[in-house]
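A quick aside before the break. I want you to see a complete sequence-to-structure record at least once, exactly as it would be stored in a machine-readable document. Don't worry about memorizing anything.
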Amino acid sequence: MSADTAVDALHFGTCLQRAQAVLQQRLDERLGDWHGLNLADYQLLQALEHDRDGLALPALAKALLQKPAATLRQLQPMEKTGWLERVAGLVRLRPVGRQLLVEAQRTTQAVYDQVLGALGVDAPALANCQRLLERLATPVGGRL
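That is the input. The structure line, written in tokens, reads:
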């Protein structure tokens, strides 16, 4: 890798981190104001929605790209509010959690629409960017 490429990679990584932080801040604010969630909570609810039968804690943690202990700490207040339940070693959404997720998805979609609209980028450019980000977001060897 040349020195110019290394500098460009560093700049790209820094820009990517800042963009993610700004987007997370916007989502945390909107989800918090409207639903009492943050982005991490929303992502947890989404992961549980994908597997309606429930997920074991290690599988849920892997889906969230975090350690099981962190996932457990995140689950506890959500379980107390009745959004989810743990039964027979599986974590599942309860009906109220599923309804909360539907409402939070609308809010999240509105934030994403606003952000993408402000960029003024055409659909093919966004599709290319999405493909690159999906590749980048794939954990190496499936490990955290």
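Two observations worth writing down. DSSP finds six helices and three strands in the chain. Strands lie at 55-56, 84-87, 90-93. We'll return to this after the break.
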